[in-house]
From TrEMBL:
SUPFAM superfamilies the UniProt entry points to: Immunoglobulin
Gene this protein is translated from: Fcrl4_1
Protein name: FCRL4 protein
Ig-like domain ranges (all copies): 24-118
InterPro entries named in the record: Ig-like_dom, Ig-like_dom_sf, Ig-like_fold, Ig_sub, Ig_sub2, Immunoglobulin_dom
Source domain of life: Eukaryota
Keyword Disulfide bond: no
Keyword field: Immunoglobulin domain
Length: 120
């Protein structure tokens, strides 16, 4: 559901030549604040061998949507990517650091705790 789905609804039916109309109901959709932004990694444990692949996944426990995602490393101010997944295909020494995911939903913003990634 989205906020725009709030409104008055009814159903109508036709049996033979008889038309029937239900009583209207009012549906109100409320915004839910962003809650529970979390990170997971593959491979797990935050340690990746040089040249291997690292996939970070960002999840949100509650929110109304639509949501936008951005990825950041604490040592760098620039966004590393968008979307709920960040994939680094061939990690290098400079990919070590603390990663976090920021989620925006309208005027709301929340971020995950940082995940320390070490390149072996």
């Amino acid at each position: 559901l989205q906020l725009k789905h709030s409104g008055h609804y009814h159903c109508e039916g036709l049996v033979s030549f008889w038309q029937s109309l239900s009583a209207p109901v009012t549906v109100t959709v409320h915004r839910i604040s962003l809650l529970g932004v979390s990170l997971s990694e593959q491979p797990s444990g935050g340690q990746v061998a040089l040249g291997d692949r690292l996939v970070l996944s960002c999840a949100v426990a509650a929110g109304t949507g639509p949501m936008s995602f951005s990825w950041h490393r604490r040592s760098s101010g620039a966004a590393l990517g968008t979307g709920p997944l960040l994939e680094l295909c061939h990690v290098g020494d400079n990919d070590s650091g603390h990663y976090l995911c920021q989620v925006r939903e309208g005027d709301s913003k929340a971020e995950s705790v940082s995940l320390n990634v070490t390149i072996l």
